[in-house]
Structures are given as structure tokens and as C-alpha cells.
Give the backbone structure.
Amino acid sequence: MMSSGLIMNKRLLQVNITANWGSHGRIAEEIGKIVISNGWESYIAYGRNANPSMSHLIKIGHMFDEICHGAQSRLFDQHGLASRHVTRAFIREIERIKPDIIHLHNIHGYYLNYPILFDFLSSLSIPVVWTLHDCWPMTGHCAYPSSFACDLWKDGCHDCPARTEYPKSLLIDNSRKNYRLKKKYFCGLDSLHIVTVSKWLENEVRASFLKGYDIKCIYNGVDVDVFSPQKSTNNLRVKHHICSNEKVVLGVASVWEKRKGLEDFYQLRQILSSDYRIILIGLNKSQARQVPEEIEVVMRTDNQAQLAAYYSMADVFVNPSQAETFGLTTAEALACGTPCVVYDTSACPELISEETGRVVPLNDISAMAVAIRQICEKTDRESIRNACRERAVRLFNQSESYKAYWELYQSIVD
């Protein structure tokens, strides 16, 4: 893998809430693999949840600190302002490692104190790369302001409409002060390179207080070898055999939080006829108990081959999310040759073309049902699936994404 032009004895330190767990953790893991293959040392520091890694793992903090940080955040809207002692301990680890590049991912999640961390980073003479996976770094509170059609973050947050959303604050709205603090500390680095995971997010960042930095888009990639059209469905955990006249409508999320649109599937079930079979993947036990009996539920699976088989089996993939900075499940479905239906919001339409799916007005369940029928009634199924696969391989191939990160590192390292 890219063996020419090796830069020896360099060290990369990535920071993320998880390590080789969840979508962002797996992205950090794959980036680590590519720098290791090119002769670098790779370190990943994380807050919680880790799987075995090819990189050196550094655990930040402990459960008691996370609980205290969560309480401070929920009571006083001070997310990212606790964890003082564990952040200072992590800084000592950075000083020990002496990385040549520090790559930040999600630094929110009740495990880091960003003023202390960024004060330290501003004293270093090494480049910092920051991949923004959501909008939290440029708002006074929330991670997805587009869910609330909120533009306050463009010139200063206040009276936050998302105060009860992650990171929840139950008593106080501290969004105005949070905004000012983030602007002060996040704009204090001399060598910061921002990566966004979609063109939509890139445009949002260019409208924020981070607009003065180098900004580039690198799409989140999918493993197009794993996520590819599958012919066999023998290992799928479906309740009943799928009849030849049934059309399978699939929904997938790693966490079915409110913005993911779980209840939209309940309404779709009322609109679509019994010829359309809805299968949802990733619900927790509490959510599964509330799902109408007419909707089939598959609990969370980390088996990517099995997930690819579900995508391949589906006639159409539906992502009714209210806000996405990329839309990884949509890209995975396309890679498996499955056309998609998404709402016209945030980065969701960016993944779809006229040949590979439909974009419908936000929250218009009737329009979504019409789009599903239109796709399922098309007779040129093979050409549609080929178009979906081609688009995913061309735009969302993870090997190209990680290559882009490697090229970015090479361009900024001394």
C-alpha cells in the first residue's frame, strides 16, 4: 500500500471518543493502518469503548471522571469544560510520545477539557489536523443545528433551541458563553488543518468562525470489497421467507436517536401496502419493544458481511435522517447496489444522483412513500444497481479516502 516515498520515524497521534469502535473509531483505525504501512508509528487516544487495534492505544480518563463530566454538562451546559485532571494527564502522554502530527476527531463525549487541550496545542510547533464529523466545534451547544433549522452559530449562539438534545443541558442555557470560549480556543492554533466529511459540511464551516483555516473535504469511505452486492441471504435473521412479490424496504442506524427518523418508518408502514416489507437494523431492546408488529426488527450487528447481505437483499434503502454530515449507511447501501431515498436536508442529497435514488422534501412521508414505489416499480433493476455500485466505488471508496489523509500528512509534515 503506497510503499514509495516512505517517511521514517514519524509519529501520528489521533484523538477520538472511541478506538476501532463505531464509525469514527474505525476511521481512525484505518488511518492508523495506512501510516503504519508507510513506516510511521501510530497512536490513538480515546475516551471509552475500544476494540483491539494495530495502533498503540492510550486510554484517556476513567468512568468516574466521565460521570462527573456528564453531570456538569447536564446541569450547567458546560460540555468540554470538565475533565481537568485527566486532560492534564493526557498532555503528559503527548509530551512523552512527541508526535509529529496530532489528528483530532470527536473531542466531545465527556472525556476532555478543550480549553486546557487547546492551550497546550497552541504552544506546540506541530501541525494539527481536525476532522469534523459533526457541527459541535462551531456551535455553542449542539452537534446538528440543521435539525432545528438554526443558524445562530454563524454569528453567536444564544437561546439554544437544541438545549435538551446531545449534549443535554437540563437547567441552564450556556450557549452564548460556550460559543465565545470555542471561538477563542479553537481559533488559537497557528497550524490547524480542518477536514470535513462532506461538501455540505465544508460550506457550513466556511460560514463559521473556523473559516480562516485551511479546509478540505475528504468523504468518509466504505470498504467496497466488504460492502458489495451479495447473492446469498442464507445467514440473514429474517423472521419469514421473503416472497417473490414482496419489496424489501430497509433502514439501518448504529444508534436510532431522535434525528434518525425512526418514527417515520411507523408512518410509512401505515401508507405502504403489505407488499412492502420493512426491516430495521440497529434498534436497542427498548426501541424494539415499541416498534409495530408489522415492522421486522434486527438488533445491532457489528458483522459487516451480514450487514452487506441485508443491504443487497433490499429493494430500496431509506434514510429518513433529519441531519447528516455525511450518511455512512447510505454510502454502504449504494456500494451494495441498492438505490436510496433520503430527505432534502444537510449532506443527505449529496450522496444521491438521479440514477441512484430519490431526494424528497424534509418530513414529507407521503413523498417518501411515492419515491419508494417508483424505485421498486422500475423494470431496469440491473442498471440501477450497477449505477449505485459505480457511484459508491468512484466517490466513497475508503482506500481513496485514507490515501487522501496520507497525502495531507505528507504535505504538512516537516
Summary: The two ends are 22 Å apart (CA to CA). Confidence is low (pLDDT under 50) at residues 1-7. The longest strand covers residues 276-283.
